[in-house]
């Protein structure tokens, strides 16, 4: 959890969030199921945390793009064109 190098230990300590403290508490408790400890370690792992941050940032980007009237109008036109194309393809398959 904490790095043994002096300046890294200080930096790591500054970034311990509530969830990591909860994980430390969970791992220190007796009688906690091993699956729960494993799940806690997995959720707090670097790759999972990076993925969660990426999803949050992607969501923010999408929400920001949705505020552009011009972009949304273009996307709606593209969606309409694709629906028309799909309709024509389905009609040709039936004929």
Taking the alpha carbons of the first and last residues, their distance comes to 66 Å
The whole-number mean of residue pLDDT values reads: 82
Q: Can you tell me the number of structural domains?
A: 2
Helix-residue proportion: over 70%
Report the β-strand fraction as a percent range.
Answer: under 5%
Count the E strands.
Answer: 0
Order of helices and strands: HHHHH
Question: Could you say which overall geometry the principal axes of the C-alpha atoms support?
Answer: elongated
Question: What descriptors fit this protein?
Answer:
mainly alpha, disordered N terminus, 2 domains, 95 residues
Report on the architecture of this protein.
The chain has about 100 residues and is mostly helical. The protein folds into 2 domains: about 1-45, no CATH class; about 45-95. The protein has helices spanning about 5-15, 20-30, 35-45, 45-65, 70-95. The chain is elongated.
What would you say about this model in short?
The chain folds into 2 domains: 1-44, no CATH class; 46-95. 80% of the residues lie in helices and 0% in strands. The protein has 5 helices and no strands.
């Amino acid at each position: 959890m904490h790095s043994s190098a002096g300046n890294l230990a200080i930096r790591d300590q500054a970034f311990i969030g509530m969830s990591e403290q909860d994980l430390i508490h969970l791992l220190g408790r007796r009688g906690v199921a091993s699956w729960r400890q494993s799940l806690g370690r997995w959720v707090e792992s670097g790759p999972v945390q990076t993925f969660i941050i990426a999803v949050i940032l992607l969501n923010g980007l999408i929400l920001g793009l949705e505020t552009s009237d011009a972009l949304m109008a273009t996307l709606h036109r593209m969606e309409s064109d694709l629906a028309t194309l799909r309709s024509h393809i389905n009609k040709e398959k039936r004929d």
